[in-house]
């Protein structure tokens, strides 16, 4: 029998309906989560897959999670394919036995049935406030093996055919520092999966199984075709770039990322040969996460209407050497792989900018700083984790933007009022730094800074940041942005510069102030081509001093209006 004809209007309706399901899951998670890291920083993702575990749609949250779902689903289907039942809910986080990413990211997956047949999976992955390990927040930078990083979950059932598996829930409660938040967030994830189940059943009832499969397969082919056309639009060639992570501790040794991107017709190969070997710290990236970051970078080159499904990844081949920190091998630690993922995307953009000089920006702040402050206050244990978002570099059309998330993860900065209401912290300063933006025809985004005063008697501080020794690079004559800084008690006799990547948590006392200054974005194009009007605007807005205007742009005239003063970094 001939296959039914594809209706292009119906395809768009079908695609939007799948996107709506994934986004409803995201909204459900957002509105019902307990922890600040999920609810306010939005460090989670949602997706719906077909019965084979191939992604059909992802919610508008973390792009780097999109490409990692198939590997995890393959593992689940291999282990439980014949033992999937209606009402089951699975959880896992381990990167080695369950194709997870790092231990704080717990996957919650629900198989979905219609007329007794498996039709789809609802998936959520959320960064939890704590999963045990040697530091609160479970984001130890100094760990040298995964056993130090927290509770490892293979693929287990949280709910078995509608009945909670009490032993698993009890294990979770006993092994985390914030059990109410972790259990609450898991229920939020389950709620999102339930929404997916309800909506997918309605979709099947509206279209029928044959039509859903037909249009699902078509979306995968469409995603692949758009991806191939986008890659074919690039000049053939090999584009290389090298970037660095500052390194670990008080005496950091640079960690190298080297990429060679080969464009050959409608296919792309991303080769990480030449990157550093396995690191004695939490920066190692599981292979599935490395693939996901590569896919996320290429997705940015595709049209906005490209389906966020597995199909667009098919023309992209990722090569990672065996002994490489981008291909974590058991028992390597990988708790802070997020920073490595941001740097992979930055490195890829550095390479691809050679092929697309008008479309990609100069380097930005390099992804969210992960700041964790923990302790006890008024008889209650607290773990505050925040992903602080920064800026972009300048582009061929405009200055870099400030206060924006890295494209790898659509995180948001937590409002001051929420932090001060829920934690024994006071935000004493929050703003943009003067003379921090990389100079260029279009400057980079100014550096964002935040200061935290400790109100508890004591607290532990753990910080994951970067781009101090290797600030954001400029493009095509644009200059570097400013370096990042972590400063304890700034402007006092006790002032101390802290490492970019702290391998040991630091004890803070009541009244201590921690200032984090992100790096400034790199500039785009020669600074001497910057318009005088733009220089004056930056001076007036307090982003550029008169002295720096002279040094960076050769500008000598005094401004007619006094500039607003922000902070000197």
Mind explaining what this structure looks like?
It is a single chain. This protein is 28% helix and 23% strand. α6 crosses α7 and α8 crosses α9. It is globular, with a radius of gyration of 24 Å. The protein contains twelve helices and 22 strands. It has a seven-stranded antiparallel β-sheet with strand order 2-1-5-4-3-6-7. Strands 16-17-22-19-20 form a five-stranded antiparallel β-sheet, with helices on one face. A four-stranded mixed β-sheet has the order 8-9-10-11. It folds into two domains: 217 residues, Beta-Lactamase, CATH 3.30.450; 209 residues, no CATH class. By secondary structure, the protein is an alpha+beta fold. The N and C termini lie far apart (71 Å).
Question: Which tags fit this structure?
Answer:
569 residues, alpha+beta, Beta-Lactamase, 5-stranded antiparallel beta sheet, 12 helices, 22 strands, disordered C terminus
